[in-house]
Amino acid sequence: xxxxxxxxxxxxxxxxxxxxxxxxxxxxxxxxxxxxxxxxxxxxxxxxxxxxxxxxxxxxxxxxxxxxxxxxxxxxxxxxxxxxxxxxxxxxxxxxxxxxxxxxxxxxxxxxxxxxxxxxxxxxxxxxxxxxxxxxxxxxxxxxxxxxxxxxxxxxxxxxxxxxxxxxxxxxxxxxxxxxxxxxxxxxxxxxxxxxxxxxxxxxxxxxxxxxxxxxxxxxxxxxxxxxxxxxxxxxxxxxxxxxxxxxxxxxxxxxxxxxxxxxxxxxxxxxxxxxxxxxxxxxxxxxxxxxxxxxxxxxxxxxxxxxxxxxxxxxxxxxxxxxxxxxxxxxxxxxxxxxxxxxxxxxxxxxxxxxxxxxxxxxxxxxxxxxxxxxxxxxxxxxxxxxxxxxxxxxxxxxxxxxxxxxxxxxxxxxxxxxxxxxxxxxxxxxxxxxxxxxxxxxxxxxxxxxxxxxxxxxxxxxxxxxxxxxxxxxxxxxxxxxxx
Length: 486
Prior knowledge:
Elements: H1 3-9, E1 25-31, H2 35-39, H3 41-50, E2 55-61, H4 67-74, E3 79-85, E4 88-94, E5 97-102, H5 103-116, E6 122-125, H6 145-152, H7 160-173, E7 180-183, H8 190-205, H9 207-216, E8 222-225, H10 233-243, E9 251-253, E10 258-262, E11 278-280, H11 284-307, H12 313-317, H13 320-334, H14 346-358, H15 366-369, H16 373-391, H17 396-410, H18 426-432, H19 438-448, H20 454-457, H21 460-476, H22 478-483
Parallel strand pairs: 1-2, 1-6, 2-5, 3-9, 6-7, 10-11
Antiparallel strand pairs: 3-4, 8-10
Helix pairs in contact: 5-7, 7-8, 8-9, 11-13, 11-14, 11-16, 11-17, 13-14, 16-17, 17-21, 19-21
């Protein structure tokens, strides 16, 4: 399909690019052309272009099939976005992407040249936590086979970190400024993680290069938020009906979006604030607010909802006990651990989250949110529990959340059906969470998973409460345990 065909076939009320796309320049690269990037950073950029901006994206893909980006290029990089609200949909065609490179087509040399291009002022990334290739100590995982291979042949990188360093090295050789590295993954202090990985790799390769990056490079942190469920046959059908034509690169998402960005760039950036983003000196209060209130309650609904037989978050929220528990979790157990960002009413934020979770038009599966809990629970729940232990305040909902996670990773739901647990530690966690009494399971998981801080591992009271919750889940099931919360 040509770009004109997409524009011509789209319904009259679909928002189209009203700017001259010939004037949009590839000033940014993005690594990781997934659904979230298309629904978030690229939509903000599309709005800035509508307001007179000129910065567009060159998409970079290091692995995965090349067909989706080739098909997008044939449509002049236009794709559709449907915002699916409870009371209807809004649709647009985004024109923020103007170019791409795929490792399969151009090899590492072509990728490095595309990123090192002097016109590129920033490189944003959405590569998930695994893409940062960090070890347990927070530094680069030098035992990772892919990192070893990239260090052995740094001009032929295959990893995200190796590719960024190779492109930065090319900029330095050319006597040019570095580009800003903008992490947009849903990770706390994501800019610091990216900086640590890049500088660790650079130092192992060339200490002078590492010094140059440390002095001149910039790695701002961000907080990103938008619910973008994985596309299904049903959502592709909905998109085609709303747009008026099929679009394999199109995505469906919720109406809400938020982007908070540390304002620390080498060579400028788009005026994303004109599209509703917030620039700030300190992202941390926003990160903690989102991780604990949104993501923490999401995890509560995901584990206990899945165990109770609910397929989606919206379906779980139709149960009044789960809805009340999620709201009370935020108000009574998460808000007291937070410092509110300037101008933010945390109670109003909690109400907005409940409305988002209830949106029946967004089929966000509990199973999908339950993935990779070993990497997510520390920031979403365990740090808050440590706060309550220190202050002597109760946290029964957070405790039930952790108990629900233990029962989930054990691999069997409340009806006795097996659970397809997706987690880097899945095999270890399954062994720890099965066999013996609830107290024995708690002791094994807390001491053997490597996730729990000493404050929790050494708290007799917490371990007793957790074992009681786990025992209750086994005896009564998740629905009854949630209903019994006061």
